[in-house]
């Protein structure tokens, strides 16, 4: 009697010998063709569109960077230009202020001289009026002194004739 498990083991070992993990028959070239076809198909369907999108994005980024750097250079130039114009405007304003102050000082000096001349004129006129009034007062006093001295003389002479 033959043992059934031994028979099955012999049959299993004979079938394993024919095929294995690396069986080189007609399926290997088919697998290679299938791999190449899938690679070409994936290249056309996925890789090229993704590559195009990445290239467009890279070009967009490059263009944006060039535009940004050009704008930055232009902004820097405008900043320098406006700073220069601002500095010139400040210098002009300072010069205008300085000239205005000098003109104001000259005007004040002229006005002060005119005021001094006017006060000197007023003082001299007042002195002249006072001198004229003094002379009139002295003449009036001289006349009064003459009149009083005549009256005193008359009284004295009149009193001596009675004595």
UniProtKB/TrEMBL annotation:
GO terms for cellular component: plasma membrane; proton-transporting ATP synthase complex. It is a single-pass membrane protein. Belongs to the ATPase B chain family. PANTHER family: ATP SYNTHASE SUBUNIT B', CHLOROPLASTIC. The keyword Ion transport applies. Pfam families: ATP-synt_B. This is ATP synthase CF0 subunit II. GO terms for molecular function: proton-transporting ATP synthase activity, rotational mechanism; proton-transporting ATPase activity, rotational mechanism. NCBIfam families: PRK07353.1. F-type ATPases have 2 components, F(1) - the catalytic core - and F(0) - the membrane proton channel. F(1) has five subunits: alpha(3), beta(3), gamma(1), delta(1), epsilon(1). F(0) has four main subunits: a(1), b(1), b'(1) and c(10-14). The alpha and beta chains form an alternating ring which encloses part of the gamma chain. F(1) is attached to F(0) by a central stalk formed by the gamma and epsilon chains, while a peripheral stalk is formed by the delta, b and b' chains. It is found in: Cell membrane; Membrane. The chain crosses the membrane at residues 29-47. It comes from Leiomenia cribrosa. The gene is atpg. Keywords: ATP synthesis, Cell membrane, CF(0), Coiled coil, Hydrogen ion transport, Ion transport, Membrane, Plastid, Transmembrane, Transmembrane helix, Transport. Residues 124-151 form a coiled coil. Component of the F(0) channel, it forms part of the peripheral stalk, linking F(1) to F(0). The b'-subunit is a diverged and duplicated form of b found in plants and photosynthetic bacteria. F(1)F(0) ATP synthase produces ATP from ADP in the presence of a proton or sodium gradient. F-type ATPases consist of two structural domains, F(1) containing the extramembraneous catalytic core and F(0) containing the membrane proton channel, linked together by a central stalk and a peripheral stalk. During catalysis, ATP synthesis in the catalytic domain of F(1) is coupled via a rotary mechanism of the central stalk subunits to proton translocation.
């Amino acid at each position: 009697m033959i043992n059934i498990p031994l028979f099955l083991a012999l049959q299993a070992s004979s079938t394993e010998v024919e095929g294995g993990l690396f069986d080189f028959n007609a399926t290997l070239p088919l697998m290679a063709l299938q791999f190449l076809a899938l690679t070409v198909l994936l290249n056309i369907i996925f890789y090229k569109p993704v590559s195009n999108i990445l290239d467009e994005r890279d070009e967009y980024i490059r263009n944006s960077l060039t535009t940004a750097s050009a704008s930055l250079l232009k902004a820097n130039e405008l900043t320098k230009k406006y700073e220069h114009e601002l500095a010139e405007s400040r210098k002009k304003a300072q010069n205008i202020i300085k000239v205005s102050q000098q003109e104001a000082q000259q005007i004040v000096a002229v006005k002060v001289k005119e005021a001094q001349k006017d006060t000197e004129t007023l003082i001299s006129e007042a002195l002249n009026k006072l001198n004229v009034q003094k002379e009139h007062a002295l003449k009036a006093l001289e006349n009064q002194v003459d009149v009083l001295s005549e009256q005193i003389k008359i009284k004295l002479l009149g009193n001596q004739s009675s004595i």
